[in-house]
TrEMBL record:
Organism per entry: Streptomyces rubiginosohelvolus
Top-level enzyme category: ligase
Ligase listed as a keyword: yes
Molecular-function GO term, any one: DNA ligase (ATP) activity
InterPro entries, alphabetized: LigD_pol_dom (IPR014145), MtLigD_Pol-like (IPR033649), NHEJ_LigD (IPR052171)
Keyword NADP included in the entry's annotation: no
Originating gene: ligD
Keywords: Ligase
Protein name as annotated: Non-homologous end-joining DNA ligase
Domain named DNA ligase D polymerase: residues: 28-281
Top-level taxon of origin: Bacteria
E.C. designation(s): 6.5.1.1
CDD domains tied to this protein: MtLigD_Pol_like
Amino acid sequence: MTPITEVEGRRVSLSNLDKVLYPATGTTKGEVLHYYAATVGSVILPHLADRPVSFLRYPDGPGGQLFFTKNPPPGTPAWVETTPVPRSEDQGARQVVVRDLASLMWAANLVVEFHTPQWRTGAPGVADRMVFDLDPGSPATVVECCAVALWLRERLADDGLAAYGKTSGSKGLHLLVPLEPTPSGEVSAYAKRLAMEAEEALPALALHRMKRALRPGKVFVDFSQNSASKTTATPYTLRARPEPTVSAPVTWDEITGCREAGALVFRAGDMAARLDLHGDLLAPLNDPEQARPLPA
């Protein structure tokens, strides 16, 4: 029988708690649920609460079938909030909004990565943050990503914008910038311009085009995730990788001091201590007082 637990007055079914999802570390589904409930619940929810969520599901672990879904999964409880979203192919489309701990635990029980856009419900296509996804092409690693991130930080500061970093949870780095609400198209155009400037300033390191033949040894500065239709891994989400790695916020001191590929790899078990030490390093993204206008 599937266990039923009560979370903030909601009845949530939790299944297969002893199932090993990450064989490399022996991490079970029960431990994954505990991670979301007890370790990061209070810090991930502000990054999820007002954004439609897309799920990358991996119910049998990262070595099993992976599939991406935007529509509410079959069997979604009536109490889970959904919101209308614009899609050219589906005028009646809706997506889940994870606004509370009960919804978070229901979603986590599906075994998912959480992905969110740069805009909030109620204002589709109007971004309140900008993202740069720094993706290294082998043999480049996160070390080279950090070098590009430092250049972008200074360039953004020249325009009065503050950047905050997190790992992708895979091999790269994400930079996030709080903005006053701005149409996504304008944010995308500005981000592309800075990606091109980065390539010009750092020709041996940075690349603004995705063409694979150009990628080896360089960092692709992916600005495309600022498109209203795109999403980025939500801060603190676990990733469908061989180990339970986290898309984890990092300090600028950590970025500056990064000297080896494994220096910025954080797993579920690392996060309680990091939160005790730093709190939510990305809290400014949810503070309207920190938002700045996009330069003209």
